[in-house]
Each structure stands twice: as structure tokens, then as C-alpha cells.
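Chapter review: from sequence to fold.
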Amino acid sequence: MKQVPMVDLVGQYKKIKPEVDEAIEKILSTAGFIGGPYVKSFQENLEKYLGIKHVIPCANGTDALQVAMMALNLQPGDEVITTTFTFIATAEVIALLRLTPVLVDVEKDTYNIDIKALEKAITPRTKAIVPVHLFGQSAKMEEIMAIANKHNLYVIEDNAQAIGADYMFSNGKVKKTGTIGHIGCTSFFPSKNLGCYGDGGAIFTDDDVLANQMRIIVNHGMATRYYHDFVGVNSRLDAIQAAVLDIKLKHLDSYAEARRYVANYYNNAFSKTEKIITPITSPFTTHIFHQYVMVLNGVDRDGLMNHLQTKGISCAIYYPVPIHQQKAYLDPRYKDGDFPVSEYLCKNVIALPVHTEFDEETLEYVTSSVLEFIEK
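The C-alpha cell string follows.
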């Protein structure tokens, strides 16, 4: 039986195997596992790619968000606005720092933060906004920055799923997602479009003061060895992961094109049925399709998932439960029904495999298998 994984990292590795193996062998032979030239090279190349002054590598995307908030000197009780339809890490770091997560709904067509809901949620205690560029396309950053400037708020972009995507401003200016707000954060988890072979993350900023503060925080709060001026954390990107990322960075745009090809194939295949609502791409952003998430309309989702699994086709639900309904984040401020779009999406979304190694035969197999179930 044909097997179709959500992401084919083995196939991707085989295409860059000589470069990767050579780099890892050099690191092993010199035992330069922490810091060093590979981390520096990746940092500088990512700065050039993003068009930003400072990239601060760190251990993972969750740490990136936490360090960003620590650098802004937010205080317990300060409110940080984000969406309820996202991976838990976005709200997790807010709670860990004893800040107050303020959740808002998302747009039904893009799955990104609802601008009207965002502005309505601002109070005198609001200090920051964390827009999530979900599944690979940008939130409405021009409007978000205007709101932030109006209310004197920080913006921390959660760019874990959209590294490489472009944002087009109304004046024609183009910037990479993650470089528009005061700070951008990303994850290099292996399944990400730019993923390493373990855990990794990075923080971006054009602000020299914030960059210096975040470099100190990720290194135990010390600028000079054994002199600790701030409370920090231990969050490092190791040399092997940096070497892998530096190699894959050269292919990031072609990886995005390959994913877009898959998404367009799916969109065309499902265009004639009303039982599937395919994802859109907003006119102000490119979409890198970290995930291909569609909405089912009157389809037995569990039945479809079982059907696909019997055919060896992987599928997933991103996300089955919104943050406000998660046990650890239950809050008397929120009740079922307060976020109707997010709750609707959680009940009806399904993600199909999307990666860089598809061929036409496999794409036809996936789409025909989906249509076979929903049209029976």
C-alpha cells in the first residue's frame, strides 16, 4: 500500500545529503558543538535573507517567544493579545511569565487574527499583540501595526509557520514576515519549511537595544562571562542544527514553491465540490503552506480520516481544541460560544500532506482518495 506522510524529511534529506554529511562530519571532527562559525554563518545568512539587522538564534520557537517578552520587560498582569486558534506555545509563554493572555477570534477565510476583535480587546493594561501567521500566510500586519502605534503597544510576530513569506504593503513595499513588528519569532522544528534535525529557533529585530538585551537573556543573562546583570535562560542553537539550517536556507524559496504547487493541485482538484472549502491566499501576502488546511462542509471528518488512513495517507487536525477550551487555560472570562469562528474551525478543519517531495502520481492518489469518500 502506498504511504503518504504529512512531511517527507527523508526524501528532502537525500537531495542535500552530501552537503549535510560533510558539514556534520566537520563539526564532529572538531567537537565544536556549541557556538562557532556554523552558528555565525547561519545567523548572518538569515539576516541577509530576511533583510533585518539582527537574528538571535535560540533553542526553539517557544523560547523565542519567551525571550522576546522578557526583553520587553513586561510585568505580571500585563495583558498580551493573541488568538485562540493557534498552537499552544503562543499562549503558553504568556502564562509562564505570569502575564495575562487575552484571546480573540480569527477570520473564517484566512484563520488569522480578526482585526476588529483585536482592537475591541485592547484595555489600559494591554502591552503587546502577538499575531500568528498561521499555516504559512501573513496576518494583516499593516493594520495591526497601525493599531499598535495608535495604542503604544509592542508587536511580537509569531512567525513559526510562515518563514519566507512576503508581505506587500499598500505603498508597494515588500517585507518578509517576522520583520514587520518590533520582534519576530520562529521555530526550526524539523517539519517546518525551514527545519533542522532537532530543535531550534530564532528571534529577529531591527532594534539594536532589544537585540542586545535578547542576546544577553538567551545566554543566562550575561554579557561578560560569569557576570549576570539580568535573569536569563539557557537557550542556544547548536552548531549541527545551524549547519543544517544554513544549507536548507539556500533552498527555502524553492521549498515554498514546491508546497504551493501541491496546494494549487489540491485546490484545483477540490474546486468542483461544495463539501470542501479550500484555503485562500490573501492578496497582500504570499503563502508558503506550512500546512494545507481545508474546511469540511457537511462531511464526516472522522470517517474521512479513517478512510485516508486505510489508504496509507496521513492527515491531521490543526487544531482540535481552541486555547480557551483547553483544560490548562480555562478562564471565567471566556465561555463556549465566545469565539464562534475558532470553535467552528476546530470542529471542521482537516490537514492533508504538503511537502517538497510530491510527484503527480501521489497528488492524484491523495485527491482521488478524498473525493472517493466525500462523493460516495
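Two observations follow directly from the output. The domain at 252-374 is CATH 3.90.1150.10 (Aspartate Aminotransferase, domain 1). The first strand starts at residue 54 and ends at 58.
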